[in-house]
Design a protein that fits this description.
mainly alpha, 4 helices, about 65% helix, extended, transmembrane, transmembrane helix
């Protein structure tokens, strides 16, 4: 897949999520959501949707460029999951001034049956 194809499919994935959320907001409010109290106005709503679509498309391009997307469905899935992907990546990066978390041990830990079986 080309970068442009990944971008378009990632854009569609983000649009699918945003469209379904917008339809739910219309159903919930009984009209245009921005006409209801405590709901964002049309401009902030449009900006948030544009940001979401751009992030979905950008991530699809980035992941596609590494060869981890083999088809349209993968790019759509990246577009849909973009906020979760960003959140998970951000959790892996320690904030400035915070000590890095110790990695959890993999495999048997001290004092388990696995260690006793390995003792001779």
């Amino acid at each position: 897949m080309t970068g442009l194809e990944c971008a378009v499919w990632g854009l569609f994935g983000g649009f699918a999520v945003e469209g379904l959320e917008f339809a739910g907001a219309i159903r919930r409010t009984g009209g245009w959501p921005w006409r209801q109290p405590n709901e964002p106005g049309p401009l902030p709503l449009a900006v948030s949707v544009i940001i979401r679509l751009a992030v979905g498309a950008g991530l699809a391009v980035a992941i596609g460029a590494t060869g981890h997307i083999s088809g349209a469905l993968g790019a759509v899935a990246v577009g849909v999951a973009a906020p979760l992907i960003i959140e998970q990546v951000a959790r892996q990066v320690p904030l400035a001034g915070e000590p890095a978390a110790e990695p959890e041990p993999v495999g048997p830990t001290a004092g388990t049956a696995g260690d006793k079986a390995n003792e001779g």
